[in-house]
Design brief:
single chain, mainly beta, seven-stranded mixed β-sheet, four-stranded antiparallel β-sheet, 11 strands
Amino acid sequence: QVQLVESGGGLVQAGGSLRLSCAASGRSFTFYDAGWFRQGPGKEREFVASISWGGGSVYSADSVKGRFTISRDNAKNTVYLQMNSLKPEDTAVYYCAAGPRASGDYRYWGQGTQVTVSS
């Protein structure tokens, strides 16, 4: 089992940048693929980006391609989401998630961190 804690959210102007971090504790993080999801006001939770346990495979939603980058440092048990060229529509609670390798089963979730982008 793994516990996840996100940090790095906040208020930023459109065009700005933020880096979210997700710190994992518990079982070795190398057992898990990881991902970022978000839920905007009045919207359903949606996929943002994912990264395999070793970092060799990454995927991102079309809405963030070219602007957001997911990465991980297994030595620090941390996953990151670098967000550049932020837009007001990126405003959401961002959640980190993890699941067993290649399962697609994101069974562990953090509590979320708020990102607000002002126009």
